[in-house]
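User: Quick sanity check before I run a bigger batch. Here is a single chain. Can you write out its predicted 3D structure?
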Amino acid sequence: MRIVCLGGGPAGLYFSILMKQANPGADITVLERNQADSTFGWGIVFSDKTMDGFRRDDPQVVAEIERNFHHWDNCDVFFKGRRIISGGHGYCGIGRLKLLQIFQARARELGVNLKFETEFKDPDDYSREYDLVIGADGVNSLTRSKYVEHFNPRIDVRKCRFIWLGTRKKLNAFTFAFKQTKAGWFNLHAYQFNEEWATFIVETPEETWLKAGIDKMDPDQSIAFCEELFADMLDGARLISNARHLRGSAVWLKFNRVLCERWFKDNIVLLGDAAHTAHFSIGSGTKLAMEDAAALVKVLTSTDGDVPARLARYQAEREIEALKLQSAARNRMTWFEEVDHYVDMEPDQFAFALLTGSQRVGHANQKLRDPAYTEDYDRWFAARCGVPTPAGEKPLPPMFTPFKLRGMSLSNRVVVSPMCTYSATDGMPGDFHFQHYTARGLGGAALVMTEMTCVSANARITPGCAGIWNDEQMAAWKRIVSFVHANSQAKMALQIGHAGRKGSTRLAWEGIDQPLPAGNWPLIAPSALPYIAGTSQVPREMTRADMDRVKADFVAATRRAASADFDMIEFHAAHGYLMSSFISPLTNRRSDEYGGRLENRCRYPLEVFKAMREAWPQDKPMSVRISAHDWAPGGTTPDDATQVAKLFQDAGADIIHVSSGQVVKEEQPVYGRMFQVPFSDQIRNELDVPTITVGNIFEADHVNTIIAAGRADLCALARPHLADPAWTLHAAAEQGVKDIVWPKQYVGGKVQLERNLERAGQLALNA
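Assistant: Done. Predicted structure follows.
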């Protein structure tokens, strides 16, 4: 097999090494436009876990890397005069040039033909001569550019400017530092990569970069600016650039986030940064490229299918990993881009938020890496929440700290999320609802939220939806609330809503979103747009009279909620229901004062909310649930959602319940663990407003991490509470939290559960 690699960086070289090992008879040529000893980066970082994976691929290469790397365990965060140290991270750094030299030597040893100072412009110059052409030519790939319409790269040019420098200043930890100037905040990412040199990356939002006048500086002036800014970190050491071939402000780069729709065409395949990139804040671009190389070799040396079929398997496998890492890198990258959202945090929380910013490392993992650091942080967090830790005792985990909204005090941060049960008759909560809500009320969660409860019969999603449009329904709800109050510490919240254009459909298990075969009721919406074109009923565009009637229904429901003794009400303005469909530009096409710009689209939902607030007791809080992302072109974005949240905050909302999606059927969400948490984070920390976050949160570690890092104030869990009504009680027992109230009738079960968990822990330690 004849193979040519266009690009002699880590991706192309590592591929050639592994391919030669797997198939010594392969004829492999690597072409590189630069000299063998030219590189414009400084150091590369690998985790200990990553090195273990590479060791399986080529122990000889890894042994050579380990002879030349600088290893460290600590992360240091310098912020507001504090240095916060977290240990146990396990990283190594190596010079980029040294890594290339190791790869070059190993490739030559195996018989790879390396050609430097060789320009290449068109992959087709090689695709006819070679069996396979590897486009390993980096983020500005010529290979990708030749067939850009086929590869279809999604390129996102990010907000910050950064300069990649080196220094002889010795660093004994992965170092993050933050400096405030008159222009704004600057961030430092720095690490030692050999006995002599450290990488020193300075980053700032472009707006700050421009205000500081760096765009008008020459390279020497901008480097001098960085030296002065971080003089206390450098102790007299100089900063050095190896990109002096670039002119003026070009030494300050912008990161390009790249992910291609397709990674191969015929016998041409993309590798590493040509196919995808990962932000330097997570330090995994080279790791991704090397893992790509290993995966590509694996499929090429298989006997299953022709070359295109094997390349398709390569993309299918690696695309998932790239998406996972890009998701984590996006979270971390965005944190640094929006660092001004977090600078009002105390240094302790600021550092914890940074360390867990990718959402790949959580509270439990931090505890495993550095138990003393995590225990100290938990002690600080608990004290901040009014729960000082007695001497000699373990602090409360963050999820079990109390929280207060107006006159409502919550014993912990766990919420039973609103979940439609579709089990009412004529809107009446029945025996199922009593069992469902009281079981979860006894299960340890601090707040139990009802399913969307409708303000009129025609406001229902399905015939099985619960309501509160008459006094009989109110009385049924009051029976549930009274039981929960009498038998637990849990508080009860009623979510009030109107289905709008998504109403008059079948029960979920009979055909979700499908119209009823008979007995439909008329639908209203801001605009006459069906939810599913050609299938759903077409709603009538609301008149002013409709708006007045619906507002009166919401106010009446609010008053009944007060009579039922609910502790909080939530205004449902998410998921494409009536209020949400006013807010989204995809569902609101009105030309009057309730359509058009965002403030107009929010006008009617705000009218209703304000009327509810006036009818609701002043000492009781109100929540608003919003869709922070429509996941569809032209729809609401997280930045829009922040503006929406601000409008409701100003109108008297005490907490914003941040969800997303379900506004239009053609949405394309990007799911994952805690996938909506970044939206909550943005709203909470940009507006300084409490938030509830929801969405694929299913572990106690998720809750602890989110709360500890200040990404939300409460966490709502749905499916975990369907599977286990006592999820919170069990989470407390698993974490050794004994001072949580169990129903007195169940205390025997509590004692046995705690005893069994302690025994299991001892057995694990002694194994």
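The radius of gyration is 29 Å.

User: Great, the batch can go ahead then.
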